[in-house]
Structure formats: C-alpha cells, structure tokens
Amino acid sequence: MKNIIYILAIVGNSFTCFSSQVGINTNVPLTTLEVKTKDISNPLKTDGVIIPRVTSLNLADSKEHGLLVFLDYENPATEEIERGFYWWNNNTQNWIPFFSMNKMKKDKTITYVSCKNSFNEGNLTYSSTNLRTLGFNSSSLIANDEGNFEVNAAGELVVKKAGTYHVQAVVSLNSSSSTTANSDQRDSYEAKIFVNGAEPSPNIRTAYGFPSGGLTFDSNSAMSGFVTLNANDRIIFSINRYYRDTGSTVNSIITPNGSLSNLTLRYIGL
Length: 270
What we know:
The chain is mainly β. It folds into three domains: 1-41, no CATH class; 50-102, no CATH class; 110-269, Jelly Rolls (Sandwich), CATH 2.60.120. Helices cover 9% and strands 40% of the residues. It has helices spanning 2-18, 101-107, and strands at residues 22-24, 33-35, 53-54, 68-71, 84-89, 94-99, 110-114, 131-134, 142-143, 149-151, 157-159, 163-177, 187-195, 205-210, 217-229, 233-244, 252-256, 262-269. Strands 7, 9, 12, 15, 17 and 18 form a six-stranded antiparallel beta sheet that branches. β5 and β6 (94-99) form a beta hairpin. It is elongated. The protein starts with a helix and ends with a strand. The relative contact order is 0.16.
C-alpha cells in the first residue's frame, strides 16, 4: 500500500512540474495560467486575482526583473509614491508605476481663467502706444488642482506645477469711435501669450483686423499650442496694435471684453 501511495505521489509531482499550462475553473487553459470566473455575466465578489499588496517599496534587496506588486499606501506629500501597481526594472534598479489612479487624476489637471475688462496700461486710444498687456481676473480662476495655480497682483497666471501644457485661448476686443464714422477707419492687432514677460518658443499668437467703416466692431480670435513651463512661471496676454489708419480723424478706442477673453491650460505631463 505504501508503494502505491509513493508511486501516485511521484506521478502527481511529475504532472505539476512538467505540465505547461494551469487552469483554475477550467480544464482547458489557453495560456500558461488561466483563471476563469464561474459565471462571466454574474461574477462573485471573490472572483479575480490579487497581486501581492505591500505598504512600501523595497529598493535595497535584489529582485527579479518584472516583479509586480500593488502599493496599498499613499503619501500625499509626494507624487513619486502613490497607490497603484509597480513593477521592478532590473536595468534601472527602481520601481516603475504602470497604473496609478492618483497619478491619472493629477495628470488631467485643467485650469480656466478669464480676463479683466481693461488693459493693465489703459485702453488703446488713437494716440496711445500700441503695446498692452491683458491680465487675468483672479476671481474667475477655476482649477481641479487649485494649489498649483494662482493669479498675482499683476494679473499674471502663476503656474506652480512644472510640465508641458496644451494651451487654448480666446481674446475678445472691441473697437469703438468717439466721433462720427469714417469709412477709412481700420485697426489690426495681434495677441500673444507671454511667459515671464517674453514669448515662449514655439510662440502662441493670433491676429485680427477690424473692417473699415462703422462705429463699433467686435472681435474674437482664438489661439492654441503647447508650452513647457517651470514651477512659478507667469502667463499673461500681450496685445499689439500693429496697424491703424493714420489719415483718419476718428478717435479709435480698443477695449477688451474680459468675460469673453479666456485661457485654458491642460496638463500633458513632464
């Protein structure tokens, strides 16, 4: 009897060692390991696989390349250590996150802010200089990551989170006259995004020309692009009137429509 049990034990061990495929809830596994739920349309709460859960990531000991763990701990003070799945990269000797819900939420940062109703240097009149800055209205700031954005006293949007952003912006200006209409009355301007007082590279700009004739004209020009920012970089609109009819006697005044002028930043990543 003992010999029979011994033989069965050897056969069982041989099957475990040499079987190339293992199935759970299936006798015909399609891969090296296949786990099936008993009812795919109504799975039980116990159906599934749990990857080993840890509360810290060991950096000192030697580990197998591709080792997978789930870090069940979050340190809100740092973005490098967040709850999620990590695999060990033996080439770089560090843990690589490949799925982190917290990281996904932070990477979807969207910020919106609209502008003031006047230029920082005053309205563009016929005799005024051609360059103005159009600041943002601090009360209009909306962000799902509020701690990383603010509008300073100069109307600049201060971005505290470094990275690349997709920029979408609209500048709305109004051209009006304080005297009678002149058919030759025309103005053209360009709007630019300035970062720390200068154009970024590549630049982000748009242009618009008010038509001739009439007393009042409205414009809405859009611009978009990508900009890479460092922590505490400052964004503001720069408006340059680069053309006006010098022979016209009409006193042309250009003012911003702050509620329609706005900027949206979408965080892309580092």
